[in-house]
Amino acid sequence: MQRQEGQNSRMKVIIVFALILLQTCSQVATAGSHVVEYLPGFEGPLPFHLETGYVGVGDSATEEEGQVFYYFIESENNPQEYPLMLWLTGGPGCSSFSGLIYEIGPIAFKDEIYNDTLPNLVLRPQAWTKACSIIFVDLPLGSGFSYAKTPYLHRGDRSVVKLAHQFLRKWLINHPRFLSNQVYIGGDSYSGTPVPVIVQEISNGNEEGIQPRINLQGYVLGNPITTMEEESYLPSFAHGMALIPDELYMSLQKNCKGNYIHIDPENQLCLRDLNSLYEIMSGLYEYHTLQPKCEVPFSSHGFWRRRSLINTFRRHLSSRLTRPPLSCEINRHFTSYMWIIDDRVQEALHVRKGAIDSWITCNSNDYDFDIINSFPYHVNLSKKGYRSLIYSGDHDPKVPFMSTQAWIRDLNYSIVEDWRPWLTNGQVAGYTRRYSNQMTFATVKGAGHVAPEDKVEECFEMFIRWISNKPL
């Protein structure tokens, strides 16, 4: 009897020790990560769990030529049960800080004109972190606070895919309590190119037995660049939105014969009509037809032209655009730049001093566009049965919703729930359709290229319902 009691006592000690060890491994920050309890500009302690840090990545699993910076926000409700999502902002080459602060994170900048003091932060009640934990990651290296230790480390689509895959497995090793959580990969805009490939790489890695196994369930994409043929739908979009007259639209169809990208330089009639189209639309904001067009102090090139949206404000601070009008979307981006370059902010975020020369939202320098079309990866993922949510702001001329509908239609899956409105607060928030490959497509009424930034409440409701496996 005493021997049995002794064995039971030793077993209890072992169990308690194991539980303490597991808790320690899952809660103590690793060498490159820190829990952030306060942020400059936000009053009081943060009412959510924020962790920032670096994960070493490179050409092999053991080498760490690059350091990927991330912001991790634990779900505000039941983090042990709710899914985990890795989020990559588009660009290409953009920091996911923009996704956190403008779109789906729990904090945002107060809607006020910058006045030479540190910008103020407020809570965003419609944070997607209500329903899942999110890792916002700065990829490729050279964007945000991520950096390469070596003079040159390849930057491009394939590199983003490899490093994102490597990052996530390493991050899960450092955070073992999330190993069993369902995992999704998300992003918008140019992330429509690498995200489906990342999902496939993770899936392949699981099948090959790479550890730790990732409990991959699917992906989320907003206004995604997919085929690099998105511009070919601009005439249809412009006509459908009553931006060009019937006569010009019919002339474009006749003279260009449906080819609006790879144009024969000898086809002068097509070129003439396209020039008319661009001239008519030149007075519109290129990412949202309903918003005012503002003079923007950074280079802005068409995504389909394979160039990036670069906003390095430093050289423009002395210009007359130092204080953009509050009505302009760019005011929020300007505010965020003035906040994140502040030394107090970087200290609070535990950024490594001297690791980067300057913080850049989007860095496409020397970027290799080596994934031409992500459509084949959607084909593969559909066959494997992964869930997906594809949404489109219906006032986006950059990636018109009909271009997204076209490649979804080309997947050739049957419709299981036909086109219908989806509602928030009793009002139509957009339209949706579900397919037999577990893909849900949704439009967001009145939103532009970055739908969660334009329609916060609507996109919050859309995501919460989808991630909870409920109809929109």
From TrEMBL:
Residues 1-26 form the signal peptide. GO terms for molecular function: acyltransferase activity, transferring groups other than amino-acyl groups; serine-type carboxypeptidase activity. This is Uncharacterized protein. It holds the Pfam family Peptidase_S10. Keywords: Carboxypeptidase, Disulfide bond, Glycoprotein, Hydrolase, Protease, Signal. Belongs to the peptidase S10 family. It is found in: Secreted. Its main location: secreted. GO terms for biological process: proteolysis; secondary metabolic process. InterPro entries: AB_hydrolase_fold (IPR029058), Peptidase_S10 (IPR001563). GO terms for cellular component: extracellular region. It comes from Acacia crassicarpa (northern wattle).
